[in-house]
Specification:
It is a single chain. Helix 3 packs antiparallel against helix 5 and helix 7 runs antiparallel to helix 18. The chain starts with 9 loop residues before the first helix and ends in a 13-residue tail after the last helix. A two-stranded antiparallel sheet has the order 1-2. Helices cover 64% and strands 1% of the residues. It is mostly helical.
């Protein structure tokens, strides 16, 4: 059928922005700050809420840009919004609008232009490509469990017995011990682990059952324990995040119980992880290999550390505080070109060797961008020169090329999201391949926005290549005619390994 434009929601967009403006002035009235970032917040929210105008569902083609701009506002605007209630300002010098805010706002605008241009240039006519195919249920489960198990065991062994702590010296020793072949093997294991989790969650949503739900819950619990032992909070949260994202993308609605559990995790469990990093891993009280065997004692020590922080009117940094990277961009904009030189693409060099294995090119470029940021901008003392300071993606683009980096780089990122959003529209075509492409993009490009370009985008590009290989290997079941599947067609449902489609009108579970 011919392409028809989505129903536009301009009225909803204007109403959201009007409500936000009222909120901003209300918060400022509570805090009474002398230098509030009101203009910046209003403009940033106006740009970040533009996907609402054309949003075609929680799993439609506008889902990726909507998520990106949502994370963008959280990363660069949420702290300023909260600070309105306390009277705290991000800017020392009194001003209505500053250079840092201009860079952040321009980056969001160029990203928006990029994704809308990509969608406008996409082919809007039906494709003459052969019918799409999906994986069978047995393949999904077998491959999913295998990839997750191999990735989990590999990650545990790597971070417990080979790289025993987070220091650069330990990483260097571990890499030398593994050699190029071992490094490649462990890299593949850690890359395939999230895909395994994703397949398990996808199988659960295709065929909901108590047994698959138990498998999903077990996966989440194991990942939390793994992240706690190896001192990597992202490993602890990845399973829960992927389950929630998979639910939303497959069902087109929100899993309220899972979201409540995630909020409770952020409030009660996450601070314990932060305290454990200081008390257990930072002081080296207990070796990683011994944590599982003495887990109760380790948790007790971590909780005690959190209580001590509270007694001294300190607290472990919250999840929301850690999501803000405005300060990094502010530091980069204020100093780059003044007392810190532009990088001229040096931190982006590893992108050129994305698909070249280390076995072939043992000396291929690798840049520890976060440590370079710390060193060049003198963020911490000399004794802490190995501390990682995240510049954020817009910050790193500006640090390399200034305004051209923002204008061109962010437009390219937006164009990539627009293209993938159009081609991998899960509201129209639910397949394992589309799901993995979208989720990998969310993890590396959207959630990874606060990180650095090379590590996030190299993994993203490699993952897309791996997804293509998996698709060629396992996508055998045709999905043509899925839209006509009904409850009265059990034989067809069994063949396609699908549950009947659900309407988008109910987005809450």
């Amino acid at each position: 059928m011919p392409w028809t434009p989505p129903k536009r929601r301009t009225g909803l967009y204007l109403a959201l922005n009007a409500a936000f403006i009222v909120t901003v002035f209300l918060f400022n009235g509570i805090g009474g700050g002398a230098n509030p970032r009101i203009v910046y917040l209003i403009l940033l929210f106006a740009v970040c809420s533009t996907p609402v105008i054309d949003l075609d569902g929680l799993n439609g083609k506008f889902a990726l840009p909507s998520l990106y701009l949502g994370f963008y506002f959280v990363s660069f605007g949420l702290i300023d919004l909260i600070n309105l209630t306390t009277g705290v300002s991000s800017e020392i010098t009194p001003s209505i609008f500053c250079a840092t805010e201009a860079v952040i706002l321009a980056a969001s605008i160029m990203m928006t232009i990029g994704y809308r241009a990509a969608m406008a240039l996409s082919n809007r006519k039906p494709s003459h490509a052969p019918p799409a195919r999906d994986w069978s249920m047995n393949t999904i489960l077998i491959v999913g469990v295998a990839l997750w198990f191999i990735g989990t065991v590999g990650t545990y062994y790597l971070n417990v017995y080979i790289i025993t702590d987070n220091s650069p010296e330990a990483s260097k020793r571990g890499l030398e011990m593994m050699g190029p072949y071992g490094t490649t093997a462990f890299m593949l294991a850690t890359m395939f682990q999230p895909i395994g989790i994703l397949l398990i969650a996808y199988a659960w949503r295709l065929r909901p059952s108590p047994y698959l739900l138990a498998l999903v819950v077990l996966t989440v619990i194991v990942q939390i324990l793994l992240g706690f032992v190896i001192n990597v909070k992202s490993s602890a949260m990845i399973a829960g995040i992927l389950v929630i994202v998979t639910y939303v993308l497959v069902e087109g609605r929100l899993p309220i119980p899972w979201l409540v559990a995630a909020a409770l995790y952020g409030i009660f469990v996450y601070p314990i992880f932060v305290a454990a990093r200081e008390e257990i891993h930072g002081k080296g009280l207990i070796a990683r290999a011994s944590i599982l065997g003495d887990l109760a004692h380790v948790v007790q020590l971590s909780i005690a550390q959190e209580d001590r922080d509270k007694n001294f009117r300190q607290h472990s940094q919250s999840l929301f505080e850690r999501t803000s990277v405005r300060a990094s961009v502010q530091m980069i904009v204020e100093h780059t070109g003044v007392d810190v030189k532009f990088q001229d693409g040096s931190t982006l060099a590893p992108l050129l060797a994305t698909f070249v294995p280390k076995i072939i090119w043992s000396d291929k470029p690798a840049v520890a961008t976060g440590r370079v940021v710390n060193k060049e901008f003198h963020v911490t003392e000399a004794d802490f020169s190995d501390t990682y300071i995240s510049p954020s993606i817009p910050g790193e683009l500006y640090w390399n090329f200034g305004w051209p980096g923002i204008l061109i780089g962010m437009a390219l990122i937006g164009g990539a999201l627009g293209y993938l959003g159009q081609r991998c529209n899960l509201a129209e075509r639910k397949t394992v391949t589309n799901l993995i492409v979208v989720v990998v993009t969310i993890k590396q490009v959207i959630v990874g926005m606060e990180g650095t370009v090379s590590p996030e985008y190299v993994v993203w590009l490699r993952s897309l290549g791996a997804v293509g290989i998996l698709h060629l290997m396992f996508a055998k079941v045709p999905i043509s005619g899925r839209s006509s599947i009904s409850v009265e067609q059990p034989a067809l449902l069994a063949h396609a390994q699908l549950s009947p489609p659900r309407p988008f009108s109910n987005i809450l579970n």
